[in-house]
Amino acid sequence: xxxxxxxxxxxxxxxxxxxxxxxxxxxxxxxxxxxxxxxxxxxxxxxxxxxxxxxxxxxxxxxxxxxxxxxxxxxxxxxxxxxxxxxxxxxxxxxxxxxxxxxxxxxxxxxxxxxxxxxxxxxxx
Amino acid sequence: xxxxxxxxxxxxxxxxxxxxxxxxxxxxxxxxxxxxxxxxxxxxxxxxxxxxxxxxxxxxxxxxxxxxxxxxxxxxxxxxxxxxxxxxxxxxxxxxxxxxxxxxxxxxxxxxxxxxxxxxxxxxxxxxxxxxxxxxxxxxxxxxxxxxxxxxxxxxxxxxxxxxxxxxxxxxxxxxxxxx
Lengths: 125, 180
Fold this sequence. Notes:
The complex is a heterodimer. Chain A is 38% helix and 30% strand. In chain A, helix 1 (30-42) links the parallel strand 2 and strand 3. Chain A has a 5-stranded mixed β-sheet, with helices on both faces. By secondary structure, chain A is an alpha/beta fold. The longest helix of chain A is centred in the C-terminal third of the chain and has 17 residues, at 108-124. Chain A has 4 helices and 5 strands, in the order E-E-H-E-H-E-H-E-H. Chain A has helices spanning 30-42, 60-67, 87-95, 108-124; strands at residues 6-13, 16-25, 47-58, 79-83, 104-105. Chain A is globular and about 45 Å long. By secondary structure, chain B is α+β, with helices and mostly antiparallel strands. Chain B has helices spanning 55-68, 73-95, 135-140, 148-155; strands at residues 5-12, 15-23, 29-37, 41-49, 102-109, 113-120, 158-163, 169-176. An 8-stranded antiparallel β-sheet of chain B has the order 1-2-3-4-5-6-8-7, covered by helices on one side. The longest helix of chain B is centred in the middle third of the chain and has 23 residues, at 73-95. At the A-B interface, helix 2 and helix 3 of A face helix 1, helix 2, helix 3 and helix 4 of B.
């Protein structure tokens, strides 16, 4: 069964937003994901849970949307944690060596905890 | 894009040929042909125009191929991803988005091996000649695109580029698979 493409951004808790992606993300629609991300950042948020539970397929263009914002050394870095990633997708991320760049958590709650930890660490510096 | 399939079937000489017509949103049919090669093999092909919206049709095609010749789900995802990346590369770099052109994908699959040939008449370019990519350095240098060829090389066991006798680019992707 094909899940139609959808991207929804909503505030998960203060300062943390959740981006839920559904269906397949490829060259034909990645711009909508990027648009949703920009919308979140324009609201002043920089901590994002990316929920892939209902993603059936994501191409290099799709996850490139997130890699484009990866810059831990930035003055105001954007942090992403991917959650509920389908096993096939996660395996590909790891086999491509992206496991050291992208972060994963089992649930949105665990992802939020990881993001809060990052904020505490960066404030402690 | 709505995909509605209609099927016609031929049986000759112990092989079964099926034609699927998928209707895109413009109502233009996309033809996919599958041909069983007993006992476990299947040949299949699809021809799509140079438009990113047809990437979904290519993945639907891959799904149908794997439905007829099932392999392990993780392998199914990997070969679908590799083919999609190859087709997307043709669309973006071979022709350029919005330019006229076609991409043909021909699959041969059996209980041990998956092989895809992605053909086009776009710019001649050998992606296998690109140097290996350090993905960590690539990303840390602020680059988020250009991962398609890297992915194809990582996911497939053999990747070969050639120009066929009709002057078409062909990218050949091969991988050992396991039938389920």
